[in-house]
Design a protein that fits this description.
- The protein is mostly helical and 67 residues long.
- 82% of the residues lie in helices and 0% in strands.
- The protein has helices spanning 3-14, 23-65.
- The termini are far apart.
- Keywords: Membrane, Signal, Transmembrane, Transmembrane helix.
- The chain crosses the membrane at residues 30-48.
- Residues 1-20 form the signal peptide.
Length: 67
Amino acid sequence: MNPITIFWLIFLSLISPAEAYDVGDGLALLLGTVVTVVGFCACLGWYARKQRKMIVYHILDCAKTGC
């Protein structure tokens, strides 16, 4: 294992777990997870549409100029 992995394992083992974990914390965790996944998917969709548009323009340009 590399030194960075060992450092993070030691660092995370020193953090004490939360003592009071109630329904509000669970809902906040669930909401944060959902928002993160939706945001990640939105970024992937935006990137894919951007790449597709670039490919389509390249194909149309090649069709006009005869690559």
